Amino acid sequence: MTETTARPARELKVAVIGAHGRMGSEAVRAVEAAHGLSLVAAHGSGDDLGDLGGADVAVELTVPAASPGNVAHCVARGVHVVVGTTGWDEARLETLRAQVADAPAAVTGGAVGVLIAPNFAVGALLMMSFAAKAAPFFESVEVIELHHPGKVDAPSGTAARTAAMIGRARDEAGCDAVPDATTHDPDGARGARVDGIPVHSVRLRGLTAHQEVLLGNAGEMLTLRHDSFDRGSFMPGVLAAVRAVADHPGVTVGLEHYLGLA
Amino acid sequence: MTETTARPARELKVAVIGAHGRMGSEAVRAVEAAHGLSLVAAHGSGDDLGDLGGADVAVELTVPAASPGNVAHCVARGVHVVVGTTGWDEARLETLRAQVADAPAAVTGGAVGVLIAPNFAVGALLMMSFAAKAAPFFESVEVIELHHPGKVDAPSGTAARTAAMIGRARDEAGCDAVPDATTHDPDGARGARVDGIPVHSVRLRGLTAHQEVLLGNAGEMLTLRHDSFDRGSFMPGVLAAVRAVADHPGVTVGLEHYLGLA
Amino acid sequence: MTETTARPARELKVAVIGAHGRMGSEAVRAVEAAHGLSLVAAHGSGDDLGDLGGADVAVELTVPAASPGNVAHCVARGVHVVVGTTGWDEARLETLRAQVADAPAAVTGGAVGVLIAPNFAVGALLMMSFAAKAAPFFESVEVIELHHPGKVDAPSGTAARTAAMIGRARDEAGCDAVPDATTHDPDGARGARVDGIPVHSVRLRGLTAHQEVLLGNAGEMLTLRHDSFDRGSFMPGVLAAVRAVADHPGVTVGLEHYLGLA
Amino acid sequence: MTETTARPARELKVAVIGAHGRMGSEAVRAVEAAHGLSLVAAHGSGDDLGDLGGADVAVELTVPAASPGNVAHCVARGVHVVVGTTGWDEARLETLRAQVADAPAAVTGGAVGVLIAPNFAVGALLMMSFAAKAAPFFESVEVIELHHPGKVDAPSGTAARTAAMIGRARDEAGCDAVPDATTHDPDGARGARVDGIPVHSVRLRGLTAHQEVLLGNAGEMLTLRHDSFDRGSFMPGVLAAVRAVADHPGVTVGLEHYLGLA
């Protein structure tokens, strides 16, 4: 029989690990509603993962202490993994790369793929990628991040990463430091410097997670802004990762590499 | 003969003191181009003011060291004054009020009027007035000011005054402090606090003078923003002050009192 | 929402009519959580209202067909009413005013008060009030409203009311029409005109209800923006109305009259 | 503008044609102030161009009627040309390509290069490039352009080009049409459609040339905005083109091709 569409011959089977957390329960709903994906297991934290319900791909959304063990369990069974849990430092990544190198073939065929994704918001990834690309063309760059007033750390992790990406892009292009004639700022209104880039943190009731990158030249300004209104904004990125992970064998850090943004 | 329009019977005669400075030369051009105003004198700093060319109203745009002497000279001759020079602290105002009380009748009739105006930008005055009015209705308020990178002080004077007006309005209404759970901010990304209100200063090539007041409640945000693209934005306020000063005898601080905004 | 008066000696007793609808169920939760308010009845639509649980104030959030009967029931028993239901045209208001004039004394003492409120979002009311106040000071004014793509009408009711308020304020101040040299606009990019003010409607997935008023003079722009992220943003206005209605005898249309904004 | 290559061994000699126009006089000043460039000729329109002062590169900023002749004169002498004049349709480009193919070697060595650049604002080019790249990742996209009220056509050429680039990118990616439930829009508040993308034109005193691209998904929005405050914003792009044209033999349309944005 001839296939006439691009639709895969069978559905991808997906397991969610950490299915009762805030992100995990959103992921369960998103997988159930998605074309071409089939939810085969929803594990709470601490559950025995067993054979993961025969999954092709696992989505791992737990806590830093549990994540490496969960991912190793999947990899050892040839199950691809999309990881949204934080805490993956270089030592953990090194161990994971060795585990993946020793893993059996993936249940989908080919080699096992693992994505470690600090951020699934496609819009935020685009903003960061564009900021790094644009920064060498401008004299001035500053970052403003705005969050709800319950956030305990400043600046946000996304703002710090954005500033680091901007700083590196400007260094590689041989840019001068951003101009700043400030000599009198007794209360610190000029904010933080991250890799030479000024970063400002606003905390406001009603907001969720927002960021603006301002780039200025004589006579012009370019503004890149991302607004994340609720956690639902992460799910298109999670689904895109689930669909693409089998095509990216080995360990990848950052969803931007799947999206052609890096 | 019957007058059929509201146009005054004769033109107002205007002198500009500090006519060769940046603001002063703009004021000369603006007075020359305005309906109902006639430029009769344009004094450089250090010029002998003499009889001010027979002016009804003087516009004083010089430097803090010269301003009190210039204004006293005008007041003693019954000439109304619109003052844009900075440095008028309470001691100077006290002296000025005594001079005005002892002054002869104004050349236009009635008592002499003096306006001390830290800011002539009508849009900026509206922003500040609206910010103070709105602030008690919101849990959170923050101020972001953005200027060219040649500015030496942070925050701007306008931002500091805005925050002070907001802080006072909230105190009078019995508002709680703005919510802020920040416990970790090693580099000062949360900016300055002025009268309890967070203030952030951005410096960017291409910008002139801009300010945003963000007000947040659960589920909503109100944003008040003023952009000043060039000094021309001050002239409508200067002209409005020149036309109104004779109707406001005594010493007034702030153009907002002439515009019904205070 | 700030409480600007001393705490009342006893709690206000509140009934919610239409307690199972989207707005009504939010109101039930908000009253239960509020200082100084006590929920004494939560009626579904069609319930017999009876003595309203002995309420001092009723919040009426039903449908246009039921609202006049519910309000009349309350007024006849001396219970103040805060009404968020739409459909109150002039004929209905006329009937209501007669009912209020004939009503017994309020259970709280004094005369009965009724508020008909088309919009409880305090931030939106502030934006509209500020737009009307600022508009005569500027040459140019335009309105941009932005909503979710499921909205069927354009422009939004709030945008049309804002433009009407701006148009009236400019007419009363004798302003010229907004400047516009457009001679070639084959596809209607310049948007709608409402009372002479250009209005633009954006529809975008991810948005809820947002509006921007842009005001321009030579060299400056003032921007007033309101973002409504969810229905929770209406509750501070509902609670403010409940607390204030007993101090406003008779029929009032528009929460802005309680807030000193009109 | 950043210099990303080593400083050339000798200065580039530059002629400006159309040196007394608004753009041309800015270009003269910019070349004189730039590192590594030396102004060797400044021709008014109608001047005999002669040997162009021995220039390596000419900047052509005249009028559509004169531009092809000027460019042909340069090409025939092996002088590279950066062209900011409009009116270069496909027929003119075809003729130019033939002239370049027959030209002698460039005075700098290698083959002659010509850049036809409809837009030198680097920030605007970045905005357009980013908009096209991001558009396939979002359900909704709309464009708002804002200009001074003396502009006669709507939408702006930049907005129309941006919408066309977005429309093409979405078609190639197989995106659905943008969602829009509007059924009632009697006055055209929804604006124009260009290649399926809604475009809105604002005209406001105080503005110069500004554009915003709004991209929306469930729960998130990405905003790309470019503000052009004055013509000075074009000069970094002109200088970048002058420095790069010798490395791009043949005819190139669009500065984005020199900047790695296309």
TrEMBL record, chains A, B, C, D:
NAD(+) binds at residues 18-23, 84-86, 117-120. It is an enzyme of class 1 (oxidoreductase). SUPFAM superfamilies: Glyceraldehyde-3-phosphate dehydrogenase-like, C-terminal domain, NAD(P)-binding Rossmann-fold domains. It is found in: Cytoplasm. Residues 123-259 form the Dihydrodipicolinate reductase C-terminal domain. The keyword Magnesium does not apply. Keywords: Amino-acid biosynthesis, Cytoplasm, Diaminopimelate biosynthesis, Lysine biosynthesis, NAD, NADP, Oxidoreductase. (S)-2,3,4,5-tetrahydrodipicolinate binds at residues 148, 157-158. CDD domains: DHDPR_N. It catalyses: (S)-2,3,4,5-tetrahydrodipicolinate + NAD(+) + H2O = (2S,4S)-4-hydroxy-2,3,4,5-tetrahydrodipicolinate + NADH + H(+); (S)-2,3,4,5-tetrahydrodipicolinate + NADP(+) + H2O = (2S,4S)-4-hydroxy-2,3,4,5-tetrahydrodipicolinate + NADPH + H(+). Pathway: Amino-acid biosynthesis; L-lysine biosynthesis via DAP pathway; (S)-tetrahydrodipicolinate from L-aspartate: step 4/4. Its EC number is 1.17.1.8. The active site is at residues 147, 151. InterPro entries: DapB_C, DapB_N, DapB_N_CS, DHDPR_bac, NAD(P)-bd_dom_sf. Residues 13-120 form the Dihydrodipicolinate reductase N-terminal domain. Belongs to the DapB family. Catalyzes the conversion of 4-hydroxy-tetrahydrodipicolinate (HTPA) to tetrahydrodipicolinate. NCBIfam families: dapB. HAMAP family: DapB. Homotetramer. This is 4-hydroxy-tetrahydrodipicolinate reductase.
